[in-house]
Every structure is written in C-alpha cells, then in structure tokens.
Amino acid sequence: RDPREIHRSPAPRQPRTVCPARRKMRRLWFLFSLLLRFIGAADDWPQFGPFIRMEHENPVLEPRRDTTFLCPMHGRSIRWEEKDVFNPSAVVKDGKVHLIYRAEDTVGNLAGTSRLGLAVSQDGVEFDAGRRPEPILFPDHDVNEAIEWQGGLEDPRVVQTEEGGYVMTYTSYDGTARLCIATSPDLLSWTKHGPAFKNAFGGEFGRAWTKSGAIVCRLVGSALVATKLNGKYWMYWGENNVHAAASDDLINWEPILEDHPGGIYRGRPDHQDAPVHGLAPFAVFGPRRGSFDSDLVEPGPPAVITPVGILFIYNSKNKWCDYGRNGKCERGENDATIPPGTYSAGQVLLSLEDPTRVLHRTDHSFFKPEMQYEKTGQVANVCFLEGLVYHRGEWLLYYGTADSKIAVAKWPDPTANVRLGTEEHQVHSGAVLNAGAKVTPSVEQWAGLGTGLERGVEFFETKNTGAETTAVSLRAPPPARQTASGLGEVDDAGRGELEIEPGVSFPVLLLAFFGLTAIGYARKVMSRPASEVGRLLAHGSTLPVTATKAR
Q1: 3-state secondary structure of 287
Q2: How confident is the model at residue 420 (pLDDT cuts 50, 70, 90)?
Q3: 309, 345, 379, 545: most buried, per Cβ within 10 A?
C-alpha cells in the first residue's frame, strides 16, 4: 500500500445486492464441501499396526556355536549358525509358529555361507526348545549348486498353497542374487525349482540380479494362502525398486514389463554382471527423495488381500551421501530425522483389479531401529521385516536386527482383523455388523452360543455371496451336529442360520448425517424430492448368514 494513502478517508462503500438464489447456492456449496471433507475422512485406508516390541523377550533367536552340520560342499562338519541369524519367514502350522530363518557361518569367500534353519514355538516367542540342530535347506550338489555356492540361500518368504503345501521364495547368492523357488509338503523336506524367472522371456532374466519375492495371499484362519487375482498368482520382488510378477503355478514366474520396455535392467545400479537388454520390469513403486525410503525399497513379508486392496509391508533404506561426514546428506536427499543408511519399513495399499497400481502409501516409516540390538551388529541400524503371522488372535511381526539376530513385535488389537477386513469379527447372539462383513466366530464365541464345540472351531474361509448373504466356512472336529441359541439347528452337513443385524460404522454415520442434511436443505430451497440414499444408508434389516462347518 502506498504510505501516502494511509491517512486518506476511505471511499464510501456501495451496498451490494446478492441474489437470494445465489446465497442459497453458496450455503448449499458450503454443506457440500463439508460432506466432501467427511468423505475424505471416511476414506482412511487399513494399515498393519501399531506393533509393540516384546522388549523382555527380544531377541527371540540368536547365533549358536553348539550346533554343527556335515556340509556336503565342504565335506566336513561346520558351525552353520555361529555368526549371525536374521531375516526370517514365519508360518503357522498345527497351531504353532514355524520360523524359517537365515543363518551364517564364518567360512567361505563371501563373508560366510547362508543356510536356512527352522525353529518352532507354541506362543510365537520361545523358540529355543523347538530349534532344529541342522539346517533344512542349504547349498548341495543339486540343480542350484552353481548359483548357491559359496554364498548360499538367503531371506526366505514362505506361504501356504491351496492344496495345503508350502512354497518358498528365497535368494540364492554366488556374487549375484537370484530369486529362487522351493516347495515342501511339511516345511521339512524341500524341492528346489531353480530361479523363479528361468523360463521367462526366453530365459533373459535367469542370470539377472533378482531377489526378495513376496507372494500375494489371503488370510485363511491362521494361514497366509497364495491366492489368484484375475486368474494369476502375483508376487512383488526386487531391490532398489519394487516390481511385480505373475504365475500360473507358483513355480514359473514372469516379470511384468514396462509398456515400452527398453534400456538395460541391472537389478541394482552398481551390479554389472548379466544385464538384461530391452526388457525393463515395471516399477510398481520406488525410492522417494527426502524420505525414509530415499535410497531403495524392497519387499517385506507376503502381501495380504483385504476388501479394499492388497496391503503390503516393504523394507527401505535411507540414503547415504558419500560427500557428507558419516553419510550425512545436506541437500535434502534423505530423511534427516533418522541416520543415513537406516533400514526401516513402510506400507502400501495396491489395487485388487490391477496389482501394479498403488492406491496409498505411508509418508513415514512405521517401524525403525530403536533398540540397541537393532542399531549395532553386522550392519548397523537395520530392522528388516520378513515374517508376518496371525496367531492366537494377534498379528506377530518377525524381523532381522542389524543383520545379526531375530526379534518379534506384536499387534495386540482384538479388532485388528475387523479393521483390516481380512477375516474376523466378534460374533455373538444379536451382534451388530456392517452389511457384508466377514465373520469368524472363535472357539469361545461358538461355545458362548451354546454350540458345545469346546474341542475347537477353526476359521477356514469367508466369501461374500451377494448383497444379502455372507457365507462363512468353518472347519470343526466332530461332532458337527449341535444346537445353538441364535444359530438354530445344525444339520449333518453343519449348516445353520444366524441372524445378524447390519450396523453402520462411525464415519458412515457422519457421512449419512451430513448427506441427509445437505439433501434436506436442497429439498427445502430447491423444492426437489429427497434422495433415497439417506434411507438406504440408515437401513438396518437383518442379514442372513450361513455358517458351514467343513469336515
């Protein structure tokens, strides 16, 4: 403003005439803006956690010098897990957590050879009593000898198949990392199938740098079961960027390529051996400047299907700047709140219709090194997440600490699966659920209904069969014929009816309130009939649910 005008008298304001219809439209637009704001609040996406470290029990697995193994490659006995144990996968089998972990010795030209061990726990925390003295998978004179010696087998991720078997992705290492596949009927005896991409595009990816495969699954009881989407199994893989691959049989995989592939793919920028020319894998997502994942991103545990998308935990590295002291970046390249080179974790939600499309991504890491055993070790400042299970009503997250030990964190929220939409809801006679909710009565809940199935009921599968019905499949021991209060007579096939009233979540109530307000106001000022949407949102008729106990 011109200083000379400061003491001037302002010119008289002319009165404004506002059209009543315009004033009404402005008020209507204001209400509509509020409605949009609440819609945004209701569009919150599901995430795992928060996870709580079990500080008094951690680390749950450490190196041992008293376990030996007759190595077929060396021809002599070695202490196969004396140096480090880390980066585990986890599977629930027979009601117990089976931890398949990477272990290193001190022998060889590549800072030790990696093998895969197995430890079993009733509670998911105490593993020493169930720790096998010898590895279950190791370099041998087999189909993978050339690519597994002397580096070994690294970073397993195991999921269950529809048939009840198990498929593992792991990384073989001989100086080059290669993503490989193995299968097992029982987690003890394994068959190696070689590189995951050995048959893709004429074998072009068979020798390329590939690693870290996380298969897309659904939660079935306590099992993460590999599940097809759009007729294919899907897997996220890679280091530096996260890529995708598809398969018909879980053994032979084909990378998803860019629409116009070209250039040279190396797997990681500093890898010079066996580049792939003209076949660039599509980058589903990658590093972000100035963020905790500014240097690289890499798959974590198996991805989990939810009603709104594929929920996926990923590992990441904060950028290290060579020009700065102790890697410090001074130009905004990384997250300055955590040390350079730190491995922490984020989450993404991907589309069910197009598993290569990211819907949401965390802005901040949800899990990062905090404890001393996570900050010091073979590699400092590392939390590398690979194992995720649902056990005894809790999600357990297993991770490698500083590439040296194994720790666990838990998400002890009894409503976790309700919010994730993966499978479970607290069910009782007269329960109130959202229409279309997936239902899993626990043993206690079924007993509370008077089913008499005290010997145990295990959730098997849920699926929506239409707007009016949610089908729930259960696996229960005999006797299968019981009578329950609110459940009705259960026939020989174990079928029964349970009336459940559909409820409305709090964000939807807010949305309905403002929606009805806006509709009512519009009806008043515009003389138009109210929409049926409000009555549909407020509808609360009973929802028939069929519970099938599969033998």
Answers
A1: coil
A2: confident
A3: 345
The token pair that represents 517 in the structure block: 């307000």
What whole-number distance in Å separates Cα of residue 59 and Cα of residue 331? 37
Q: What is the pLDDT of residues 321-361, one digit of tens each?
A: 999 999 999 999 999 999 999 999 999 999 999 999 999 99
- Measure Cα distances from 127 to 96, 99, 118, 124, 400 in Å: 10, 8, 9, 7, 15
Q: Is the pTM of this model over 0.85?
A: no
For the range 520-524, what are the long-range contacts, defined as Cβ-Cβ under 8 Å and sequence gap of 24 or more? 521/27, 521/28, 521/31, 522/28
Supply the mean pLDDT for the chain. Answer: 77
Q: Rounded CA gap, 349 and 314, in Å?
A: 11
378 exposure class (CB count in 10 Å sphere: 0-12, 13-18, 19+): middle
**Tens digit of pLDDT for each residue in 496-509?**
333 333 334 455 55
In the chain, how long is the greatest CA-to-CA distance? 101
> CA-to-CA distance for 220 and 423, rounded, in angstroms?
8
3-state helix, strand, coil in the chain (%, to 5): 15, 35, 50
> Residue 31: what residue type?
L
- Whether 386 and 395 have beta carbons less than 8 Å apart is answered as no
Each residue's pLDDT tens digit, 245-268: 999 999 999 999 998 777 788 887
Of 36 and 177, the one with more pLDDT: 177
Sort strands 52-53 and 405-411 into parallel, antiparallel or unpaired.
antiparallel
Question: By the 8 A CB rule, do 496 and 487 touch?
Answer: yes
Q: For the residues of 197-245, what is the DSSP string, one character each?
A: TTTGGGGTTTTS-----EEEEEEETTEEEE--BTTBEEEEE-SBSEEEE
Long-range contacts of 531-539 (CB under 8 A, 24+ apart): 537/504, 537/508, 537/511, 537/512, 538/504, 538/512, 539/502
**Closest among 284, 277, 272, 289 to 314, alpha carbons compared:** 284
118: pLDDT strictly greater than 70: yes
pLDDT bin (cut points 50, 70, 90) of residue 278 is: confident
Which is more confidently placed, 335 or 548? 335
Structure tokens at 252: 């032979």
